[in-house]
Amino acid sequence: MIRMYIDPGTGSMLFTILIGVLGAGIYALRGVWMKLRFFLSGGKGKKEDASRIPFVIFTDSRRYWNGFESICDEFEKRGQKVVYMTASPDDPALEKAYTHVKTEFVGEGNRAFARLNLLKADVVLSSTPGLDVYQWKRSRDVKWYAHVLHAANDVIAYHMFGLDYFDAVLLCGAYQEKQLRDLEKIRNLPAKELPLIGLPYMDALKKRLTESQPLPPHPTTVLLAPSWGVNSIFNRFGGKVIDALLKTGYHVIVRPHPQSFTSEKEMIDALMREYPDGENLEWNRDNDNFEVLRRSDILISDFSGVIFDFVLVFDKPVIYADTSFDKSPLDACWLEDDMWTFSALPRIGRKLTEENFGEIGQLIETCLNDPSFQENREEARAETWVNIGSSARLTVDYLMKKREELLAQTAEKAAEKSSKKPGKKGGETA
Fold first, then answer.
1. Of 42, 201, 291, 396, which has the fewest CB atoms closer than 10 Å, so is most exposed?
2. Residue at 34 is within a domain
3. Residue ranges in 275-359 assigned as alpha helix (H)
4. CATH of the domain at 183
5. pLDDT tens per residue, range 228-278
6. Which domain holds residue 173?
7. pTM of structure
8. Could you count the other beta carbons within 10 Å of the beta carbon of residue 270?
9. Beta-strand runs (E) in 1-120
10. How much helix, strand and coil, in percent to the nearest 5, is found in the chain?
């Protein structure tokens, strides 16, 4: 038997073509059915399609529920019908009881996108980028697509074209508007709506921190939380960074990126054998990083998004490693201006380099005790996290108002079309 191999890229392309063909066929059949139903009803169509969903929220991962929960709660409070669609079978949303918000597992990977591509809804909100770029296509029966951010940094840090085809992007920092407007100009894209809303997931994180019990006395704790890949701390410095931290006498928590345990398993296993858990060292693999961030006094990372969670929410300093950053796959490579992240990092922490590696203890002391870092954290927070505590309410305000506008536009177009039919008042020709 001859077995044929299809590489993932080709498979994705074939799936996209298949969905396009099936979608076109379904839309054609739907159009025939609508005309037939109109004819059989004597020309009287229904004013409203009962199968159309007013609002859909889509997420490709359970980890984004910490931001969407407050939005769903706000919709529920207003008695508004919403369908929350998730591609994670273990999404915590599926266990939450709502009256007006329906939570639904729509399958993983391509199964989820196949459902989304034929969706009938007024407004779709998602934190998933790449609309109309890969498998996820704009449905002809969706009026409006809005993107909500899941990181308090540059919107040009997405992979290329990640936000191009959304109708709106809900921003959390004023500088992000210029970044997207510059991309629109370069790519000759229509202007999106860019309301300055805030960041629901960070609001939720801050609320959780405020409601937490005070920490018991503990030794000064350093959290080493690198990202993964060839440019990460472990790939650049290996175990030397753990050696240097243990010499400081501080308590050290090592929390590799979850992907490292899959993509870099051999390296992580070797490090865990060489540096086993002990009195001053622990390895952390909690699904939820809240407690480990809360009990750490300083963070050492590279360019992981956890940096801004730690700095802006927990109000603590960081040391960031001098690893190379390749922006060629990102939207950032299209723009001449530097990313906001690289202007913020020197203000909120110190850089770890080959030259100052042996002085890591002194770097930690400086970051913990220099009051200027506190002032700079407040400055960075003001730049990239607006409307703190109000983002869920403002998000729902925006989405509901937008739907009202869209429905009004649809009604107006229907009225104009009806008035132009022969025999209708104002529609007869001389």
1. 42
2. no
3. 290-294, 306-308, 340-348
4. 3.40.50
5. 887 789 988 899 999 999 999 999 999 998 889 989 999 999 999 999 999
6. 48-199+389-405
7. 0.84
8. 13
9. 53-59, 82-86, 101-105
10. 45, 15, 40
